[in-house]
Amino acid sequence: MKDLSKARATLLEVDGENAGQRIDNFLLRRLKGVPKSHVYRVLRSGEVRVNSGRVKPDYRLQAGDRVRVPPVRTAQRAAQPAPRPIAFRVVHEDAALLVIDKPSGVAVHGGSGVSFGAIESLRAARPDAKLLELAHRLDRDTSGLLLVAKKRSALLELHRMLREGEIEKVYLAVVKGRWQGGAREIREALHKYVNARGERRVSVQREGKQAVTRVRPLALAERFSLLELRLLTGRTHQIRVHLAHAGHPVLGDEKYGDFELNRALAKDGVKRLLLHAHRLAFAHPVSRERLVLESELPQDMQRFVAQHFASCATR
Known about the structure:
Elements: E1 2-3, E2 10-13, H1 23-30, H2 36-44, E3 49-50, E4 66-69, E5 89-93, E6 97-102, H3 118-125, E7 133-134, E8 143-149, H4 152-163, E9 168-176, E10 184-187, E11 190-194, E12 200-204, E13 212-220, E14 224-231, H5 238-245, H6 259-267, E15 275-283, E16 290-294, H7 299-308
């Protein structure tokens, strides 16, 4: 990205790494500290120009575009602690892609009361990286495989692949109760809303967005089941809401789970959501080489499984 600034406005020339992204997202990343509403205001007013012309917020930048960014005032923010570098376990890395094994309890990004998350820690640990962007998200308390793009072209292709269902995502979960009916699909539409306390929630509603989760039981005990779950759609909290609706909430789920059971399990040392992003399989976004990546269950989940499923029926 070349800075061709003159006077008070800033003139930027778009390079290959930034080509393909929407102008609003480009500005939001560049104008850190500027209120989102103001970014859209200067876009719609025509103060932002691309190749001397007005553009809509959904305009996708092309290599060589010249973007005029007007002078803007950043919002005054309280001092935030600097992100601390975290040495995540690297499952796969090449010039375009990084896949890490995220621990439970680590948010993927800052926000909603969290100063920083995995992506900010990665950037702090890799200050020379030109680009590190999340390709998808995991809930804070879900552990496992997290895709990070190192090139803009890879990020855009990964987003397309996720939309088209070309990335196989497999999770492992320990749930309440003995699963009945063998392998089957849960097809329930999901609706996002904000509750009275301002917290984001999801519920099963006919008017919601289509959501499909494929469930295969791996081990069945009297009180708990170990399930393999394949996401055929990628809705917020999909696995957790689908399983809770089916009567088998994920153990340790503080939003949709059995709260009394969670409290009892916490006394036995279960202090996390027992949901793990176990497997990703997809064609590499650049080379098209087939990648199959796996993360074994974390030790705390392994101990729980060994304790409760040592001698029980499988499948």
